[in-house]
Design a protein that fits this description.
132 residues, alpha+beta, 3-stranded antiparallel sheet, 31% helix, 27% strand, elongated
């Protein structure tokens, strides 16, 4: 009987772990790498693959409550460091009303607050680091 309870506990732990991985959305690191290599003017559709028709660009210090107000389920993000970091922006991609993936990239210029763009409008300008 002791072994059965241990087995049931192990199975429950696996089910909870699998459920967590399905619920939480991982950062799209492939897009993040491609965006990091891009320079100056970036048309996001050229660098971010997959099904998406809108992107919300979340600026630094945006709270989770503000993210929810624009449709981003902040509790599903594995990394919500945008709430306290100022060196990057969060790109949240949507297909219709469905949040599909997210990525971070170096801070961009010309976007003073969190803004939603269509796929065709999603063109950003990277901030170039100042020479030291």
């Amino acid at each position: 009987m002791k072994v059965q309870w241990w087995l049931i506990g192990a199975v429950m732990l696996l089910v909870v772990g699998a459920g967590y991985n399905v619920y939480k959305i991982k950062e799209d690191t492939t897009s993040a790498t491609q965006l990091a290599a891009a320079t100056d003017r970036i048309k996001l559709a050229d660098y971010v693959s997959g099904e998406w028709d809108e992107v919300v660009i979340v600026t630094p210090y945006t709270s989770e409550q503000e993210m929810r107000a624009v449709g981003i389920p902040a509790t599903r993000l594995r990394d919500t460091s945008i709430t306290y970091l100022d060196d990057r922006v969060l790109l949240a991609f949507f297909e219709g009303d469905t949040f599909t993936k997210y990525s971070y990239m170096q801070r961009v210029s010309g976007i003073p607050h969190t803004t939603r763009f269509t796929r065709a409008e999603a063109i950003v300008h990277k901030n170039n680091p100042s020479p030291k």
